[in-house]
Design goal:
Blueprint (H helix, E strand, L loop, with lengths): L1 E6 L2 E8 L2 H16 L10 E8 L3 H19 L1 E11 L2 E10 L13 E2 L5 E5 L2 E9 L1
Antiparallel strand pairs: 1-2, 2-8, 3-5, 4-5, 6-8, 7-8
Helix pairs in contact: 1-2
């Protein structure tokens, strides 16, 4: 589960899940849900592999979302399906989606960057919580 909240000239993403892997999946889904209004209409016809390393969960989240945003910016690829496996030194992921088709995809926010401001990943009594601010 994720929600979007306003943060001055930026946008905040708050993600909650029962486990760490799902937290990273939901964070990716939250990012792309802010980029495109109709994420459910993105077909899974292209596949991309990722390997991100970090020993700290908050920096891993930052780098993970940064890689996804870089893919969107450089390849114009919308991703909508995320398989994530956490490893001892980071994560490996297989993501699926398709190139932007403006006749079918309604773009929403333009995200310039993932920021360190307010970045957190923590275990709570209810599971896992992450917050990240994106520069729009």
């Amino acid at each position: 589960m994720f929600e979007v909240f306003d943060h001055t000239a930026d946008l905040g993403l708050r993600i909650r899940s029962e486990d760490r892997e799902t937290l990273f999946i939901e964070a990716a889904r939250a990012l792309f849900s802010t980029l495109v209004v109709n994420l459910q209409d993105v077909s899974c016809v292209q596949q991309k592999e990722y390997a991100v390393t970090s020993e700290e969960d908050d920096y891993l989240l930052f780098d993970w979302l940064g890689e996804l945003l870089y893919t969107f910016d450089t390849e114009r690829l919308l991703l909508s399906e995320f398989d994530v496996q956490l490893t001892d030194d980071g994560l490996r992921a297989t993501c699926r989606g398709e190139s932007i088709d403006l006749s079918r995809h309604e773009l929403d926010q333009e995200i310039k960057a993932i920021t360190y401001h307010g970045l957190k990943v923590e275990h709570t009594d209810d599971g896992w919580l992450a917050e990240v601010i994106v520069d729009i």
